[in-house]
Amino acid sequence: MQPKTAQLKIDDKEYSLPIITGTEGERAIDMRNLRKDTGHICYDQGYGNTGSCESTITYLDGDNGVLRHRGYPIEQLAMFSNYVETAYLVIYGELPNSKQRKAFGHLLREHSAIETQMQRIFDGFPKNAPAMGMLTSIVSSLAAYYPELATNNFEKDLEHFDLAAPMAISKIRTIVAMIYRYRHGLPFIHPRDLPFADNFLHLMFSDPYVAYVPVPEVTNALNLLLLLHADHEQNCSTSTVRMVASSGANLFTSISAGICALSGPLHGGANSAVMHMLQSIHDEGDDGTRFIAAAKSGSKSNRLMGFGHAVYRNYDPRARIIGTACDKLLTRLGKSDPLLDIAKNLEHAALNDEYFLSRKLYPNVDFYSGLIMRALGIPTDIFTVMFAIGRCPGWIANWKEVATNAKGRIYRPRQIYIGAVKRDYVPMDKRG
Ligand code: SDX
Predict the structure, then answer these.
(1) Model's pTM, two decimal places?
(2) pLDDT at 287 over 90
């Protein structure tokens, strides 16, 4: 029988701390009264050993490479579902019935356009503005354009949640395509009454007079890619969404904060960093051998991008699925990609190298995702904003958990102060 409490001894005093057990048997020591009871806080830089919330959305077992959304294994969702259905599941907790699925799809189509006035924001950016910089700014402006959906009052914002949620997903998809068109000097394309992934590809690659019509394999590959990014427990960007939401901030503003967090190279920026890494290996005529040797130096600038994970100490199940899908797509399109061959060399070398094995470094979702996007014709500068489309349902579901938590509190971590002790002001003429 598992103990219900943990015993803590500080000096000559003993404290009994409750143990919380999750649905999958995960156990946590409840520290919510630690400071009040003991005068101490706990210190956990990067929060790697700290649970910030209780959640019902995603279960992740990093040691065994398990990922489930609302109880459904990612492998089954990848096999039988699609991005929009999985988005509904992540947000609402259940797979939609046909009526719910139809209504959700209708809202996605109905709100896929960006109003003309809002389109003027794009003109404020230089043509070579980084895509993520544009996305964070434009998405946060949704709160300004739709203030009735973004009142920063949870009760009111939850009343409009069933409109704001699909609106956020649909408009972010369209904004990403518009960012691509703007950066590449192409005219914006108006959305059509198409399924989500088909509409994205239309918005990206149609021209004003000839519609781009993808083969089903391309649409399926994009659907799979977005589905595999839908949510991932309390990753950096999702925790950021919860942090911002905990102040009472509306959905659009909280999502734009998540996009800011995603832009870092250690998080969402890794997919494009992988492609730059593979391209430079290729350009140097290396088959990956020299690069692997450098990656073992441990310096952050030589890292094998797309490898390692803050939680997975096993193969990221998403990486395995994307790797297989990438192979199938290239075969179906009759394409080959030398960078895929290099990626496979790197994977094989790393999975047989003590340095990576001893540190439990395996491919993560970003290792192959860039290659499949490249096969879809999506340029590297748009890779990270693609991740944002995929992750939107997870951010929305986590925002809703914060907004509906009646016992919720503003996120306000403590710190260990290691700065100067008290000292008196020194007038200018007395300073060194
Ligand atoms: C995502 O959290 C999520 O869920 C994120 C995500 C999601 O869906 O939201 O899954 C998406 O962000 C995936 C991760 C994408 N990032 C990368 O691929 C960048 C490359 N990977 C690393 O920078 C690193 O692995 C992290 C940031 C992902 C994880 O870092 P940790 O857990 O803090 O690991 P660490 O930095 O403490 O490293 C542990 C050891 C170190 O060596 P030692 O000091 O023990 O000798 O492993 C080494 C590191 O030097 N190491 C690597 C490495 N990653 C870690 N060495 C070479 N190449 C790497 N990629």
Answers:
(1) 0.95
(2) no
Residue to substitute in 55, 241, 266 for testing ligand 1 pocket (most ligand atoms within 8 angstroms of CB): 266
| pLDDT confidence of residue 288 | 87
User: Nearest residue CA, atom 27 of ligand 1?
Assistant: 266
Determine the distance separating the centroid of ligand 1 and the alpha carbon of 308, expressed in angstroms: 4
Nearest-CA residue for atom 18 of ligand 1: 306
Is 327 considered catalytic here?
Answer: no
The sign of the dihedral angle between the CA atoms of 211, 214, 219, 225 is negative
Catalytic residue among 309, 327, 353, 424: 309
The one catalytic residue in 198, 231, 316, 366 is 366
Q: Which DSSP string corresponds to 228-297?
A: HTS--SS-HHHHHHHHHHTTT--HHHHHHHHHHHHTSTTTTTHHHHHHHHHHHHHHTT--SHHHHHHHTT
Residue nearest to atom 57 of ligand 1 (CA): 303
Q: What is the pLDDT of residues 62-86, one digit of tens each?
A: 999 999 999 999 999 999 999 999 9
- Could you give the domains of the chain? 5-51 (2.20.28), 73-268+382-403 (1.10.580.10), 270-375 (1.10.230.10)
pLDDT in tens, 96-137: 999 999 999 999 999 999 999 999 999 999 999 999 999 999
pLDDT confidence of residue 2: 75
Dihedral of alpha carbons 372, 376, 378, 382, sign? negative
Which of 359, 366, 367, 384 to probe ligand 1 with, by most ligand atoms within 8 A of CB? 359
Q: Is 69 a catalytic residue?
A: no
Please write the tens of the pLDDT for every residue from 288-313.
888 898 898 877 778 899 999 989 99
CB atoms within 10 A of CB 209: 5
